[in-house]
């Protein structure tokens, strides 16, 4: 007998993967959590029926959350990651030696616990001495830490359940206040095939707060449609003005200095969403 996991990404479309083993299922205080081992993608974290990360393709998402912003800011010493309890973004942030402290604020401690147990290649840096892990509400942490961070990264689920507040203009205004005078923020903003309205709304809201707003894309096979967007808001520095010849090569599998600006070259239908 074969076992298959299916994520219903819309009412009419989904993806499916053959399962070797279900490692854990639990209804936490915030969401339904599952860790499964798939034949094609390896171990997979699923929250509320949505694929969050897999061992095989996780590097794309985590690298593209972290490196464009950190290579745009000239001196990112203090970095905040909201969400991201699997630890992948933290792992990438720590590849930048100028980062003195990286703070992870994850609302669901079970995500951290099971990621450490089943996804050690992703969560392996969560115990690094440069990292502070806080199990709390990221929305409230932002509110309580004004003028604190050089870069803030929002590694959230889709805008359902505990992540709903992380897609509001009030949250983006709080991020602006929590950043220093030359700070940068970046958030994952879903896909343009099924969530065009979300991308338009986020882009409009962020533009009302940040003077420089850029959208970029990456290919993530296990995310809905495979084409994923990220939105960056900057107080001072423009990612398109970065001299790519001065970006230091680091250990990556997707992001490169040449890709830094190329990722901001959007397909026309995506570009139209940002106008």
Automatic annotation (TrEMBL):
Its EC number is 2.5.1.16. Coiled coil: none annotated. InterPro entries: PABS (IPR030374), PABS_CS (IPR030373), Spermi_synthase (IPR001045), Spermidine_synt_N (IPR035246). Spermidine binds at residues 62, 86, 155-158. The active site is at 155 (proton acceptor). It is an enzyme of class 2 (transferase). S-methyl-5'-thioadenosine binds at residues 31, 106, 137-138, 162. Pathway: Amine and polyamine biosynthesis; spermidine biosynthesis; spermidine from putrescine: step 1/1. GO terms for molecular function: spermidine synthase activity. GO terms for cellular component: cytosol. Keywords: Cytoplasm, Polyamine biosynthesis, Spermidine biosynthesis, Transferase. The keyword Transferase applies. Residues 2-235 form the PABS domain. CDD domains: AdoMet_MTases. It comes from the Bacteria. One of its GO terms (biological process) is spermidine biosynthetic process. It catalyses: S-adenosyl 3-(methylsulfanyl)propylamine + putrescine = S-methyl-5'-thioadenosine + spermidine + H(+). PANTHER family: SPERMIDINE SYNTHASE, SPERMIDINE/SPERMINE SYNTHASE. Homodimer or homotetramer. Catalyzes the irreversible transfer of a propylamine group from the amino donor S-adenosylmethioninamine (decarboxy-AdoMet) to putrescine (1,4-diaminobutane) to yield spermidine. Belongs to the spermidine/spermine synthase family. HAMAP family: Spermidine_synth. This is Polyamine aminopropyltransferase. It comes from Paenibacillus solanacearum. The gene is speE_3.
